[in-house]
Amino acid sequence: ALPIWKLEALGFTVREDEAGRTFGGDTGTLIAILPGTRKGSVLFCSHMDRVKNGHGIKVREKDGVLYSGGDTILAADDVSGICAILDGVRRTLSSGNPHPRIEIAFTVGEEAGLFGGKALDLSVFQSSCCFVLDSPGLLGRLVNGAPGHVRFAIHVKGKPAHAGNEPEKGLSAIRVAADAIMHLQEGRITPTVVSNIGVIKGGTGTNVVPDLCEMT
After folding, report:
1. Left if phi > 0, otherwise alpha if psi is -120 to 50, otherwise beta: which for 23?
2. Beta 154-157 vs 161-162: how paired, if at all?
3. Class of residue 197 by CB neighbours under 10 A (exposed 0-12, middle 13-18, buried 19+)
4. What is the pLDDT of residue 169?
5. For strand 130-132 and strand 41-47, is the pairing parallel, antiparallel, or unpaired?
6. What is the DSSP letter of 139?
7. Closest alpha carbon to 126 in 157, 159, 104
8. Which of 26, 28, 185, 186 has the fewest CB atoms in 10 Å of its CB?
9. How far does CA 206 lie from the centroid of its chain?
10. In the 8-state DSSP scheme, what is residue 24?
C-alpha cells in the first residue's frame, strides 16, 4: 500500500503525480511537503517499487530483526529507505526542535529504468540538492557519484562483390571496421572512464566481399 496516510499523519501535504503513465504503470510518485519552522529546505527520496517477485512478500521477525520468509525477497530495496526517512521525520518532530521545510519524493519505476525520477517535476521542490536513501553499506556511507553507461551500435556499410571473380569491385566493411577499431581508444581511457568494443559481426560467406559489419 502507498504510504500516503503515514505521511499525512505526520502533517505532510501529499499528492501523487502521473509518472506511471510514462512507462505503462498505474501508480505515480508521491510528493510530500511539510512546512518548516526555520529557514531552509531539505529533500529526501526513496523508491517504492522493487524487483519482480511472483511470490508476494513474506517477512518474519527474529530478535528484533526483519528477514524474508526464505522463498521471497525482503524488498529492503528500497522499503528500508522509505522507513529510514519516515523514522527520521518522526524523530525530528518529536524532538520539538525547529526544522527546515521537509520535502519527500517516493518514486516509482526505479528498478525498470528510473522512470519515476525521470518524470518528476523538480520545480515543485525548493531544495537545492537531494538525499537519496538507496545504497547498501554501513551507516554514514555517502555516495556522491555513480557509474554511467553508454552503448554504441556502429553499422559499417561496404560494397559487395564476388571475392573470387571481381574482388576489386568490392569494399570490405570488415576491413573498414577493423581500421576504425584500431583508431579508437579502448580499455581505461581515464581513471574513471573505460571503453570496449565487445561484439563484432559481419559478412555472409568467404566468397563474398562483406558489405556490412556491425560493432557494439
Report:
1. alpha
2. unpaired
3. middle
4. 96
5. parallel
6. T
7. 104
8. 26
9. 44
10. T
Of 28-37, 69-78, 83-92, 112-121, which gets the smallest average pLDDT? 69-78
Q: Are 45 and 104 in contact (CB under 8 A)?
A: yes
Is the pLDDT at 1 greater than 60? The verdict is no
Cβ atoms of residues 116 and 108 within 8 Å: yes
Please report the sign of the dihedral spanned by the C-alpha atoms of residue 10, residue 14, residue 20, residue 26.
positive
Cell of 11: 502533517
Ranges 41-50, 118-127, 132-141, 187-196: which has the least confidence: 132-141
Query: Largest alpha-carbon pair distance within the chain?
Result: 89
Q: Which residues are catalytic?
A: 49, 110
Please give the single-letter amino acid code of residue 185: Q
Q: Average pLDDT of 27-43?
A: 95
